[in-house]
Design goal:
50% of the residues lie in helices and 5% in strands. With 318 residues, the protein is mainly α. The chain folds into three domains: 1-67, no CATH class; 119-211, Cyclin-like (Cyclin A, domain 1, Orthogonal Bundle), CATH 1.10.472.10; 222-315, Cyclin A, domain 1 (Orthogonal Bundle). Helix 5 (166-180) runs antiparallel to helix 6, helix 5 (166-180) crosses helix 7 and helix 9 (236-251) crosses helix 10. It starts with a strand and ends in a 14-residue tail after the last helix.
Length: 318
C-alpha cells in the first residue's frame, strides 16, 4: 500500500530534480520506506506503524495480523507469553543448522518442555482449559474470565486448592467472579453446566469468601427480569411493569434478604397476570429454577405492602 504524504520532514529534503520547490514524499507501508516522488531518493527507512492493532478475535488471525503477538491474559497458565521453539533444525534463511547448534536447541526444547510440566503449571493448564469451556456454555464476558483466573490464582497461592477437586474450585471461582462483576449467573446454572452438586460448589464458595477476604455485593434482581421474561415468552410491556414493581419493592426495603431471582420471578408473574398473559406459576418457577411456593409467599408479601393494586379482579386468584 502506497500513501502520499505531505509531512513536515519534506522541508528537510532538497530534491535534485526540483530545487527550491515543494515535493511529495511517498510512504510504502510494506517496506517501511519514505522516498521522494520526484528523484526517488529514500529519505526514511523502517517507518514505525502507529496505527491500532488488528481486531481479529481468533488465535490464528490474531497472530497473523498482530505486530506484538498475543495479548497478555491471566486466563493462560503462562499469561499468554509462551515461548515456542520449532522442531525444524533450520535457521531463518532455510539452511540446516550445524551439529553443535542442533544439540543446543535440543537442550533448549527439553528445558522449555520441563518448565511447562511443573505441578502448578499443570494445575492451571487443566483449570483454564475448563474455564474456556465454561465461558462459551455460560456466555461469560472477558471481564468475568479474567476475574475468575485472578481468584483461582489466589487460591493456588494460598494453597486453598490443595487436596480439592479442580472443577469444584474453578466453579466456585466462576460464581465469585460473576458476583463481583454483577453477571446474573446462579450457582445452579454453574452446577448444571459442570455436572457438580450445588451444595459442593456453595461450600467451596463460602471458603473462598472467608479465606480470600472477598467483598461481594448481592445480585440486582432487575438483571434477572429480562432472562425470566424471555424464557416464559412475556411481552415487553410485562417486562417494563415487572421492573416498575421491583423498583417500588426496593424503595420499601422488601428485597433486602430475599433471593434476587425469586423476587424477579414474582414480579414477572404479577405483571403477566395484570397484562392478561397466560403464564402460570409453574412455568415461571421452572424458568427461574425455584419452587412455586416461594413465588406464592413473595406474592403474599407484595400484597401486604400494596406494591400493586390487588383490588383488581385479575389478581383475585393470586
Amino acid at each position: 500500500m502506497v500513501v502520499v504524504d505531505k509531512d513536515s520532514e519534506s522541508s528537510d529534503h532538497v530534491c535534485k530534480n526540483r530545487k527550491g520547490k515543494d515535493v511529495l514524499l511517498v510512504t510504502d507501508a510494506n517496506t517501511g520506506e519514505t522516498m521522494c516522488s520526484a528523484c526517488g531518493e529514500v529519505i526514511i527507512e523502517n517507518v514505525l506503524e502507529l496505527g491500532p492493532e488488528s481486531s481479529a478475535q481468533s488465535g490464528e488471525d490474531y497472530m497473523a495480523k498482530s505486530r506484538t503477538g498475543r495479548k497478555s491474559t491471566l486466563a493462560f497458565n503462562d499469561m499468554g507469553l509462551s515461548t515456542v521453539i520449532q522442531q525444524s533444525d533450520k535457521d531463518a534463511t532455510g539452511k540446516n543448522l550445524s551439529g553443535e547448534m542442533k544439540r543446543t536447541f535440543y537442550r533448549l526444547r527439553m528445558w522449555d518442555k520441563n518448565s511447562k510440566a511443573l505441578p502448578g503449571h499443570r494445575n492451571m493448564q487443566k483449570a483454564f482449559t475448563l474455564l474456556e469451556g465454561l465461558k462459551s456454555k455460560l456466555s461469560l464476558s472477558d471481564a468475568v474470565v479474567e476475574q475468575t483466573a485472578y481468584i483461582y490464582r489466589k487460591t493456588l497461592a494460598k494453597k486453598i486448592a490443595r487436596g480439592r477437586s479442580i472443577p469444584v474450585i474453578l466453579s466456585a471461582s466462576v460464581y465469585a467472579a460473576c458476583r463481583f462483576t454483577n453477571t446474573p449467573r446462579t450457582i445452579q446454572d454453574i452446577a448444571n453446566t459442570t455436572n457438580l452438586r450445588r451444595t459442593t460448589i456453595h461450600r467451596i464458595y463460602r471458603l473462598l469468601v472467608k479465606d480470600l477476604d472477598l467483598t461481594l455485593e448481592t445480585y440486582n434482581p432487575v438483571s434477572f427480569i429480562t432472562r425470566i421474561s424471555s424464557q416464559v415468552g412475556a411481552s415487553e410491556k410485562t417486562k417494563r411493569d415487572a421492573i416498575k414493581f421491583l423498583i417500588k419493592a426496593e424503595e420499601l426495603m422488601i428485597t433486602s434478604g430475599k433471593n434476587p431471582i425469586a423476587m424477579a420471578a414474582s414480579v414477572v408473574y404479577l405483571a403477566a397476570i395484570i397484562n392478561n398473559e397466560k403464564i402460570s406459576q409453574t412455568k415461571v418457577s421452572k424458568a427461574a429454577d425455584i419452587s412455586s411456593v416461594t413465588i406464592r409467599n413473595l406474592c403474599k408479601k407484595l400484597k401486604e405492602v400494596k406494591i400493586v393494586s390487588f383490588a383488581d379482579p385479575k389478581l383475585a386468584k393470586v
